[in-house]
Structures are given as C-alpha cells and as structure tokens.
Write a structure and sequence with these properties.
The complex is a heterodimer of chains A (139) and B (120).
Chain A: H1 3-9, H2 12-20, H3 25-35, E1 41-42, H4 44-71, E2 76-77, H5 79-88, H6 95-114, H7 127-133
Chain B: H1 6-11, H2 27-37, E1 43-44, H3 47-73, E2 78-79, H4 81-89, H5 98-101, H6 112-119
The chains are: A mainly alpha (139), B mainly alpha (120).
C-alpha cells in the first residue's frame, strides 16, 4: 500500500525514470522553506507530495496550452499559451506576474542579442537577474 | 566549465551566482515534464519552461501556505502530507490534484467527511 516499498523493489532505471518526471526535491523543499516561518518543519513525505503536485500542475496546464495550439494549428507551445492556459484553469492570480516575468525576459533577450560581449564573463552579477526576481507576488 | 548561455547568462547572473539567481527550478526537467504531459505536445518554445519555473514557484508557495494553515490548525509545527491533502480539498482551483494525493479519499485520516460533503 505504501509507495515507498515499491521504490525499494524497482530497478535503478525505473527510479531514474520516476525522478525525471518530478522536480528535484531539494529545489522544491527550498521554495517551501522560504515561504514558511523559520521554526517550521516539513516532513519528507510532504515534500514528495509537493513534487508530485507540481508535476501534475505542469502537465495539467501544458495539456490545456497544447490543446489550444492544436486548435489553432500551431506546432509550438509558447509562453503566452502557458499564461493563457493558467488563466483559463483558474490560476488567474498567477497570470499577471507571469506575464510581467515573461515580458521582462523578452526585453532582456533583446538586450542580450544586441550586446553579445557583455555575457561572456562568468560571475558578473546581472542587474537584470535582480529585476526579474523583484516582481511582486499575487498573495 | 559552465558557459554563459541564454539562461545562465542573463537570468542567473552567470557562474556561481546561478544558484542564488531567480531560477529555483531546472528548466530542462520542466521541459521533460511538459513533453510527457501529452502526445500532442510537439515543440516547446524556450520561454515556456521559463514561465513554468516561475509559475511552479508561485504554485508551491500557495499550496505550502495553505497547507501550513492546516498544520497550525492542528497545533503542530511540522507540515505533513495530510496538511497538503486538506489544503487541496479546501481550494477549488486545486481540485485536479485531489485524487493524486489520496486516490481513495477514505484513506485520508481527516478528509472523509469533507470529501463526501463536497461531492453533494
């Protein structure tokens, strides 16, 4: 009944495949930790559950975005499709900050393409990185 | 040797600062998950995984906060799987996830009553 016993008996390949369809637990755990009070603890099982939920979220939204592309006879799912799908599925709160994030990324892309020499240096903190992370959250 | 590319160059500030940059989630992995979601998914633009990296962050934050509310209600300081399940059950927009966490709602220690109420 417990999923963890299945993991013990599957081969290495299957474990690797299973991990491939999930976001890394360390990253997920970090995001969770950042939003909680300092003395909060998170069980391993809760982190694993969050991993599963996040992957399902991606699949769910991608499915919707991909349906739209199919109807419009487009082959490529782009950032706008993803934003649209989120709005349609009830994640209205996410759509505005995501749109801003995407617009900012496109702006930076244009900058980067017109100033190629700036980005060859390792370890140079980019002010744009700070700008992207300063977009306010909906809640 | 890490090379400054589209993502590491701009958005993570290049080099070591990549870890503390705004990207908390690996784009290649996100892309893999997107591809597996449907046979209809053929091509994915470079921006799509990027949007998801931010969206997943927002999603995880929201679900975590709501789960933590359940933890607090239970007068505990450790966030458990049951708290996540409770948060999913009480948030309409997360309905698509309910069966993922407890395929049979009757398995959830506290959920049974709420679930049957919602069905009606």
């Amino acid at each position: 009944m417990d999923d963890s016993t299945n993991r013990l008996t599957t081969g290495d390949d299957e474990i690797a495949n299973q991990q491939e369809r999930l976001l890394p637990i360390a990253n997920v755990g970090r995001i969770m930790k950042q939003i909680l009070p300092q003395n909060a603890k998170i069980s391993k099982e809760a982190k694993e559950t969050m991993q599963e939920c996040a992957s399902e979220f991606i699949s769910f939204v991608t499915g919707e975005a991909s349906d739209k592309c199919k109807k419009e006879r487009r082959k490529t799912v782009n950032g706008d499709d993803v934003c649209w799908a989120m709005g349609t599925l009830g994640f209205d709160d996410y759509a505005p900050p995501l749109k801003r994030y995407l617009d900012r990324y496109r702006e930076l892309e244009d900058d980067r393409l017109s100033n190629p020499q700036r980005n060859e240096e390792e370890g140079q903190p980019s002010s744009s990185a700070a700008e992207l992370s300063s977009i306010p959250k909906p809640f | 040797m890490r090379q400054a590319g589209v993502y590491s160059g701009i958005l993570s500030g290049g080099g070591i600062s990549g870890r503390t940059g705004p990207h908390l989630l690996p784009l290649a992995r996100i892309k893999k998950i997107m591809k597996k979601s449907s046979v209809d998914v053929k091509m994915i633009s470079g921006e799509a995984p990027l949007v998801f990296s931010k969206a997943c962050e927002l999603f995880i934050e929201e679900l975590t906060k709501r789960s933590w509310n359940m933890t607090i209600q239970g007068k505990r300081r450790t966030l458990h799987k049951e708290d996540v399940a409770s948060a999913l059950a009480t948030t309409d927009v997360f309905d698509f996830l309910i069966n993922l966490v407890y395929p049979n709602a009757s398995d959830h220690p506290n959920l049974n009553e709420e679930y049957t109420e919602k069905k009606q």
